[in-house]
Design goal:
The complex is a heterodimer of chains A (656) and B (241).
Chain A lengths: L19 H5 L4 H15 L3 H10 L1 H7 L6 H15 L3 H9 L2 H8 L5 H15 L12 H12 L3 H14 L3 H9 L2 H8 L4 H15 L3 H10 L3 H8 L5 H17 L7 H14 L5 H14 L3 H9 L2 H11 L4 H14 L4 H9 L2 H8 L5 H14 L3 H5 L6 H9 L6 H14 L8 H5 L2 H8 L5 H15 L4 H11 L1 H8 L4 H15 L11 H15 L4 H14 L4 H11 L10 H6 L4 H14 L7 H10 L2 H6 L7 H16 L6
Helix pairs in contact in A: 2-5, 4-5, 5-6, 5-8, 7-8, 8-10, 9-10, 10-13, 12-13, 13-16, 15-16, 16-17, 16-18, 17-18, 18-21, 20-21, 21-24, 23-24, 24-27, 27-30, 29-30, 30-33, 32-33, 32-34, 33-35, 34-35, 34-36, 35-38, 38-41
Chain B lengths: L2 H15 L8 H10 L4 H15 L2 H11 L6 H15 L3 H11 L2 H4 L2 H17 L3 H18 L4 H8 L18 H18 L7 H17 L6 E2 L7 E2 L4
Antiparallel strand pairs in B: 1-2
Helix pairs in contact in B: 1-12, 3-4, 5-6, 5-11, 8-9, 8-11
Classes of the chains: A mainly alpha (656), B mainly alpha (241).
Organism (chain B): Juglans regia (English walnut)
Protein name (chain B): Protein GID8 homolog isoform X2
InterPro entries (chain B): CRA_dom (IPR013144), CTLH/CRA (IPR024964), CTLH_C (IPR006595), LisH (IPR006594), Ubq-SigPath_Reg (IPR050618)
Chain lengths: 656, 241
């Protein structure tokens, strides 16, 4: 090792010499300084070196130098620590564990500007990581400190301020606190600053306004220039600035429906993001996610994007970026959003032969990509035309999808369930491909999951599988699912799961008369479960599905009708009114409709036991309840009430 | 009258002319040019911008003294020039240390630049015939860059292939040993430093000249008028009739 003070050393690219730690801890400031510089210059830009120095335990040794009183030592130490933390979570962890954070903060008030800058830069690096300590905006001194950072002329300071906001501002209380403290005004000023100040400001503003209409309005009204400054920045020469500006505008428009809704700005944003997608680097990667946030659940924007030939561009990107996981994920998600509502997009997608690329992505190494591919398939398979044509039910798609039900990653499983849920609605009665490759077994397994979302989605897919299925298929499903499991799902703790379970039964008993028998399997446990749940139904939707099941069953023979009566009006009652009366009084017109329909089927004139059933219904107060609904506001309900009353009249003995 | 004045006036006049098609004689044109007002301060700023961006420290300082035009802290220009010079002389390690002293974030946030600097180091080692060291360096320093980022692999392979050739100056990738490669890297570093200091990395003057040529081309469709064809002399040439 050359001992001269000249820092150029031909062997400095060698592995860290073993005495480095010793030299870092030296009491001789010259030796220590040289060691610090050596570490710094080796690790900057070099992730591999950062990792190896980390493992050597260099971070605590470097952090210890922050105790020194010499500017040069402080600068080098801070710079090295900042570099360890730059884009490297393990480094951030090590720096924080070494207790360097408070020392770096104290550098901010050091008399030497260079030391201050070094400290600010390092802290900013730390705050770019999720591991940074949370900044408490609600404490007055903290807010004052933040404001002083943002008001400073000094770039590292404003940069630090912005990164603190971007990192720590999460709740709406925090967002509002920042607004009320006057942070918006400072950030608006920074929009006219240097490149990094503009970028930092844009990102901070987006963070503060996200999902907070009050904050968004406050920003717009803060100054006449505020919104126009951001709009101008969408034309900036730096792509990253354009991206951040568009992100900011999108946050405002999504949060606050009275701003930025005109066609001009919408078109501008669509074209801007499509252009940014061309960037081969980080900007292009992030652009796809920002594009998603623009068009998700917004049909008008999806239409604009379609007209701007977004699908062609995205298809090309699928071809070019399949080996860049994050980017690939982003593109798949945009495609999912684009095809979520519009058949025109889905047709175009399929005509471009993009389906194959997405199907290939189902077996990608990266879990996020796999999940995104499933989400994309779910959107595209909403095309009834193509679903019926069988484009999604061939083995090429079904087999890898079903395999994903085993995926080690839960989010992939859930996403796969979403796609499968659509694909099994294939309008043919066979569905054999799916069942043959073990799909049914897996769905049933997942419907027993501890995770309520998983149960819900699995059941949803099973429900769709049962839709218009033939008897062989239905029997197969019930055999695999088992009656006890189905009953317990009807009584699931989650209301949404109950709804799907009931809808599944509804699909089971739909169809030919024999189908009704399914509800009576194994001593009526399904029917009993339905009756029990309807007693305690917590959501209208549960009542609706349940009543349609009962209504379907009541279209059967006498035995079936009596069984339904038994559920409606249990023998042992002490004046408790039947749940059906509650349903008939419900605010939800769909529920009222479903309830009346069941009554109509029960009292169908041509069936032998109808008159005794009418008497029972009358005794339970159900007939009089229906009489009050003659002028129901819903046409559907009114018409059925009329039918029901007509049927009652046929059995009337003259009394009311 | 300085060439600069002429160019700028020409540009302003063309923009005004863009709406009517006709033939304009040199006399008429010059008369119109004289009516165009250009501020001296603006021109001075343009000149200063050029000197600073290109790194002509002494000239910038002298110009400041003589014209009173302000500029950024010259020390930062000096630092930046030192880095650029180090790369141009092949002292890449020295350049890296200087950049890190100037702003430790630059190389940490510019993987492509860092890779190119490492690549240049390797090239210099090979140029100096230090084959052993070059091999070791390639393995320890450049290979990880390729692992960290796949898009560097191709260039990495090209550079490493230099080691395979006996006569490096005559091999397919021999251009890597050219001085032009050093200049390319130096330019990249210069641009990165300028951006980090929030200066535009390109001077304004070339943009102005490009605009002039473009504007003349546009106006050609609508009028015949005196052109500036030679930018270095800024002479007005008679319109083609």
């Amino acid at each position: 090792m050359p001992a001269s003070a000249s820092v150029s050393s031909s062997s400095s690219h060698h592995r860290a010499s073993p005495d480095l730690l010793v030299r870092l801890g030296s009491t001789d400031p010259e030796v220590k300084l040289r060691a610090l510089r050596e570490v710094k210059n080796q690790i900057i830009g070099n992730r591999t070196k950062k990792l190896s120095f980390l493992k050597l335990g260099a971070v605590p040794a470097v952090a210890a130098a922050l105790d020194a009183a010499q500017s040069e030592l402080l600068i080098q130490s801070a710079a090295a620590l900042g570099s360890f933390a730059c884009g490297f979570d393990a480094g951030v962890r090590a720096v924080l564990d070494a207790g360097a954070f408070p020392n770096l903060i104290s550098l901010l008030s050091y008399p030497d500007d260079k030391v201050v800058d070094a400290g600010a830069r390092s802290l900013r690096m730390i705050y770019q990581s999720k591991l940074a300590p949370k900044y408490d905006f609600l404490q007055v001194e903290n807010m004052e400190f933040l404001l002083s950072l943002l008001s400073s002329e000094n770039e590292p300071f404003t940069g630090l301020g912005a990164s603190i906001i971007i990192h720590s501002c999460q709740t709406d209380i925090e967002q509002n606190t920042l607004c009320h403290a006057g942070v918006l005004k400072k950030l608006i000023n920074l929009l006219e600053g240097s490149l990094s100040q503009r970028d930092g400001s844009l990102e901070s503003l987006a963070t503060i306004m996200k999902d907070n209409p009050e904050a968004a309005s406050k920003f717009v009204s803060e100054s006449g220039r505020a919104l126009s400054s951001v709009i101008d920045l969408t034309k900036d020469r730096y792509p990253r600035t354009r991206l951040l500006a568009s992100m900011c505008l999108i946050v405002i428009r999504n949060t606050s429906p009275c701003h930025l809704q005109d066609i001009g700005i919408k078109t501008k944003l669509v074209y801007l993001l499509l252009e940014l997608l061309d960037d081969p680097g980080q900007v292009g990667e992030e652009a796809s996610f920002v594009f998603s946030s623009l068009i998700t659940q917004k049909e008008d924007l999806q239409k604009l994007a379609f007209k701007a030939n977004a699908l062609d561009k995205l298809h090309n990107q699928l071809l070019n970026y399949s080996s860049h996981p994050r980017r690939f994920q982003g593109i798949l998600l945009v495609l999912a959003d684009l095809c979520s509502n519009l058949e025109s997009c889905r047709s175009k997608f399929l005509s471009l032969k993009a389906l194959k690329l997405v199907t290939n992505a189902l077996t990608n190494d990266n879990a996020d990509v796999r999940a995104a591919a499933c989400i994309c398939l779910r959107s595209v398979s909403r095309s009834i035309k193509n679903l019926s044509a069988g484009h999604f039910t061939n083995e090429v798609i079904v087999i890898p999808l079903v395999r994903l039900l085993h995926d080690p990653c839960t989010s992939v499983q859930v996403a796969a369930l979403g796609a499968i849920g659509n694909i099994v609605v294939d309008f043919t009665t066979h569905k054999s491909t799916f069942v043959k490759c073990g799909g049914l077994k897996l769905l049933v397994q997942l419907s027993k999951s501890m995770d309520p979302t998983m149960r819900l989605k699995a059941l949803w897919a099973l429900k769709n599988l049962t839709f218009l299925a033939d008897n062989t298929c239905k029997e197969g499903i019930l055999l695999e699912l088992t009656t006890p499991l189905l009953s317990s799902l009807i009584c699931d703790p989650e209301a949404s799961v109950q709804v799907q379970a009931l809808a599944l039964v509804r699909n089971l008993v739909d169809g030919c008369i024999n189908s009704v028998e399914y509800a009576f399997a194994e001593n009526d446990i399904i029917l009993d479960a339905i009756g029990r749940q309807l007693q305690s139904a917590s959501k209208a939707e549960i009542g609706i599905q349940g009543m349609y099941v009962l209504g379907n069953i009541a279209s059967g023979n006498e035995f079936h009708k009596d069984a339904v009566m038994h559920q409606l009006i249990p023998q042992v009652n002490d004046g408790d009114c039947s749940f059906i009366v509650k349903f008939l009084r419900s605010n939800d017109s769909q529920l009222r409709t479903a309830a009346i329909w069941a009554i109509i089927n029960l009292t169908f004139p041509s069936s032998p036991g109808a008159s005794s059933r009418v008497i029972k219904l009358r005794n339970a107060g159900i007939v009089s309840q229906i009489k009050t609904m003659v002028n129901d506001p819903s046409v559907d309900v009114k018409l059925r009430v009329r039918t029901a009353l007509g049927q009652f009249m046929a059995f009337s003995d003259g009394s009311a | 009258m300085s060439l600069f004045w002429i160019v700028i006036r020409q540009l302003a006049e063309i923009e005004a002319m863009a709406t009517s098609k006709k033939v304009i004689t040199k006399e008429e044109w010059e008369k119109k040019l004289n009516d165009v007002k250009i501020m001296k301060e603006d021109m001075n700023k343009l000149v200063m911008n050029f000197l600073v961006t290109e790194g002509y420290v002494d000239a910038a300082e002298k110009f400041r003294m003589e014209s009173g035009t302000e500029h950024i802290d010259l020390a930062t220009i000096t630092d930046r020039m030192a880095v650029k010079k180090a790369v141009q002389c092949g002292n890449v390690e020295d350049a890296i240390e200087k950049v890190n002293d100037l702003n430790p974030e630059i190389l940490d946030t510019n993987p492509q630049l860092f890779f190119h600097l490492q690549q240049q180091r390797l090239i210099e080692l090979i140029r100096n015939g230090k084959v052993e060291e070059a091999l070791e360096f390639a393995q320890e320093e450049l290979a990880p860059r390729g692992e960290e980022n796949q898009s560097f692999l191709e260039e990495l392979e090209r550079t490493v292939s230099l080691l395979a050739f006996e006569d490096v100056s005559n091999c397919p990738v021999g251009e890597l040993l050219d001085i032009s490669q050093r200049l390319k890297t130096a330019s990249e570093v210069n641009a990165a430093i300028l951006t980090s200091q929030s200066h535009e990395k390109d001077p304004k003057l070339p943009s102005l000249l490009k605009m002039l040529i473009w504007a003349q081309n546009q106006l050609d469709e609508k009028a015949a008028y005196p052109h500036i064809n030679d930018l270095s002399t800024a002479t007005l040439e008679d319109p083609a009739i």
